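Chapter summary example.
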Amino acid sequence: MTNRIVSLIASATEIVYALGFGADVVGRSHECDYPLSVKDLPMCTSPKFNPDGTSYEIDQRVKAILQEAVSVYRVDAKMLDDLAPTHIITQAQCEVCAVSLKDVEAAACEMIKSQPMIVSLEPNCLADIWKDVDRVATALGAKQTGADLISALKSRMSSIEVAAAKIQTRPTVACIEWIEPLMAAGNWMPELIEAAGGTNLYGEAGKHSPWMSWTQLVDDDPDFIVVSPCGFDIKRTLEEMSLLTSQPGYSTLKAVVSGRVYVADGNQYFNRPGPRVVESLEIMAEILHPTVFKYGHEGTGWVKYSGIG
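The structure predicted for these 309 residues follows.
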C-alpha cells in the first residue's frame, strides 16, 4: 500500500524527506517550509494567534491562549479527512512549538475515516532526535534506512566534536532563544555548544529552555552571545535586537566589546530538531572557532551583529 503522509511538524517533514519518502507527503503544517517543494502541499494547521508583532506581543498572545486551551494551533480535521492519510506525524514535546498530540488524536478519532497511524515525536535532546528518526523510519517500514541516516548524521557531527576537542580555548556562550521575555536555549542546544568547542552557560541538555534575567547575563559576562529566537529568521531577529542593545550595561559586555555577538536562524536551524541539526552544529562551530571551521553558512545561517546599543 502506498504511504500517504501528513507531517504536522517542520522537523518531521525534513526527516521524512531525508528518509526518501518526500513523494509520499500529501499534507503539512503551516510551519513546514523545507524542502521548498513541500510548500506546494495543502496546509492542515493554522495558529490561533497573530504571529506578527514583537517577541513580547507574541509571548503574551501565546500565554493567553494556553490559559484556555491545550494548544496554540488548530487542526483542520476536514482537510485531514479529505487527504486520507496513512500516517500523521506530530509531536508531544512542546505545545507552543507545534500542534499538540491531543489535538491530532481528537481529530483522528472523530473525523478521519482512513484511521491513520499517529507517529508522535518528542525531541528533548540529541539522543531523542535520533530516536525520532528511527521512530519515523520504523513506522514507514524503512528501519534500516533510518539507521543508515542516523549513522551518517552522527558521523558528521562526531568529526566536528573531535576537531573542537583539540582546541584549547573553550569560550563561554550565552545562547538566547527568546528576546522578550529573555529565555536561554535548552534541549539539544547545550549539547551543540559543547560539541562545537564552547562552554554553555544556560539551559540543560534534555530540559526545556529556561527563562533568565538580564542581570544574570550581565553578571556572567559571556565571551559569546548567540541570539536565535524560536520561529524567527535572521531578518526578523535583527529587527528585535534593539530590545537587547537598549538594556543597561549592554555596551560594556565582553561579547559586545570584542565583537562576538551573533544572530542565527533559529527557525531553520537551532530550533528545528531534524537532520539539519548537523548544520546547526556547523554554524555554532563556525561562530565559536572561525579559524578552524568553515562550512559556508555565514550570511544564510548566521551573521555577526555589529550594533552596540
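To summarize the output: The chain has two domains: 5-122, 169-304.
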